[in-house]
Design brief:
The protein is an alpha+beta fold. It has two domains: 390 residues, Creatine Kinase, Chain A, domain 2; 43 residues, no CATH class. It is built from 17 helices and 17 strands. The strands form five sheets. Strands 1, 2, 3, 4, 5, 6, 7, 14 and 15 form a nine-stranded antiparallel sheet that branches. A two-stranded antiparallel sheet has the order 8-9. A two-stranded parallel ribbon has the order 10-13. Strand 3 and strand 4 form a beta hairpin. The radius of gyration is 21 Å and the shape is globular. 44% of the residues are buried.
């Protein structure tokens, strides 16, 4: 679809998703993960500019491979030649948006190479790269916002919608995987499975139990933040679990979500709270007579923050970030479930015994209870044992081997241990904090 063609009808938006369908042989895996940057000496988050700063790290990472991304004269990211990029979250969380790749071996190699490269630069500057779902020592007031106009608009709008939105934006980190769909039917099945199992992913990857240097009651405080960010665009919209879910239903939902901004030639214009439908009708306040393009639609899709998000692909968004193994385990978990047809069908049938309320209640309870969260008449730990077995079978069926003849199931080992022992990374970090102190937590969770 032409990026500059005006959108005036809902059918064009439905067609956007239909044209995003890919043949199975063309399915790819995109992994994104965020991390915190701290001054090693002070345990303070890095500012944007200065001798020891985020800007300096970005400049040091520039190469023939990585070229700078700038906004208003500020470097705000790096673009790689293979479709990967390094970007900044609102509080300076450092994000790798990985290239679309064919298998988890390639994904894990990409993650490893990235972390080695970034850690080398940071080590030379005495900067810690920390892999946790929530900043364990900082407060919101301490964090400098990155110089990106869209973030300043979100900072302005979010407090009116939820009490923890700016906390989420500055003090949390996630890892997610982006996967393709082949048809509307395939999309529906994948979205239903992904939404239903997002509470399980949150429980397995829970890694945000430490707040302001102290152990909390939460397993995933990051997940808790999203409950109080913006009810218009977060959580699990229950219509996705209905029998008649479709591309059109998703489009209707996205059209109901208030806008944040319009980007024109790199300038972000404030349209906070206004309607994309009005934009399509040429009646957007301040932009009367103007119409959106597909690029505007894609921008609008980025300000939807549901537990699973569909754009031209499906994003799984429920997990806290973690150490090297966990960054590889998250895409392996979902690829095993969603990219093998037999496993997807078996998982879909398995989940039919759980109601919509079971799923919504699990999502609401999982930040505190983790794997002990009730899921119907089971716990998420019990469900997790079954689901990881299914994911492992899906990866075996894919039979994607590395040079040593290993398939992708090895990437599940770290989370198999979590579920078997009912002990999350959040539990482990809380124990380390209580026995050895915060310095040891930094040591254990740094890359």
């Amino acid at each position: 679809m032409e990026k500059n063609k005006y959108i005036t009808e809902k059918k064009q938006l439905i067609d956007y998703f239909l044209k995003s369908c890919k043949k199975k042989q063309d399915w790819l895996i995109g992994t994104e993960h965020e991390k915190f940057l701290f001054c090693k000496k002070t345990k303070k988050r890095l500012k944007y500019s200065g001798e020891k700063s985020i800007k300096t790290i970005l400049e040091k990472l520039q190469s023939e491979y990585f070229t700078p991304i700038s906004e208003s004269g500020n470097i705000i990211g790096l673009k790689g030649k293979n479709g990967d990029s390094i970007t900044l979250e609102p509080g300076g969380q450092f994000e790798l948006s990985g290239a679309p790749l064919k298998n988890i071996h390639q994904t894990c190699n990409e993650i490893n190479n990235h972390l080695i490269t970034v850690s080398k630069v940071c080590d030379d500057m005495e900067v810690i790269t920390l892999g946790m779902g929530y900043d364990p020592v900082s407060s919101v007031d301490e964090i400098e916002w990155m110089p990106k106009k869209r973030y300043s608009l979100m900072k302005k709008y979010m407090p009116a919608k939820g009490k923890l939105g700016t906390t989420m934006m500055t003090l949390s980190c996630t890892v997610q995987v982006n996967l393709d769909y082949s048809s509307e039917q395939d999309m529906v099945k994948k979205m239903k499975v992904a939404f239903a199992l997002q509470p399980l992913a949150t429980a397995i990857f829970a890694n945000s139990s430490i707040i302001s240097g102290k152990t909390s009651d939460y397993k995933s405080y990051r997940s808790h933040l999203w409950k109080y960010t913006d009810p218009d665009r977060c959580g699990i919209p229950d219509f996705v679990l209905d029998d008649d879910f479709s591309f059109e239903k998703w489009v209707d939902y996205i059209l109901s979500i208030p806008m944040y901004f319009i980007n024109r030639d790199g300038i972000y214009h404030d349209v906070l709270g206004l309607s994309f439908v009005d934009f399509m009708n040429g009646k957007l306040k301040g932009f009367e007579g103007q119409f959106p393009t597909i690029k505007d639609w894609e921008d609008h899709l980025t300000v939807v923050f549901t537990e699973v998000r569909m754009k031209g692909f499906i994003e799984m968004r429920g997990a806290d970030t973690g150490d090297w193994d966990k960054l590889c385990a998250l895409p392996a978990f979902w690829v095993g479930l969603l990219y093998d047809e037999d496993t997807l069908n078996e998982t879909y049938e398995y989940l039919k015994k759980f109601s919509k309320d079971d799923i919504i209640n699990a999502r609401n309870d999982v930040p505190l209870n983790g794997l002990n969260t009730s899921f119907g008449n089971k716990t998420l730990q019990q469900v997790g044992i079954d689901i990881i077995a299914l994911s492992k079978q899906g990866l075996k069926n894919r039979n994607c081997l590395n040079a040593n003849g290993d398939d992708e199931t090895k990437f599940l080992e770290t989370i198999e241990k979590v579920v078997k022992n009912n002990k999350s990374f959040a539990d482990i970090n809380s124990e380390i904090l209580n026995k050895k102190g915060i310095d040891e937590v930094f040591k254990e969770c740094s890359y």
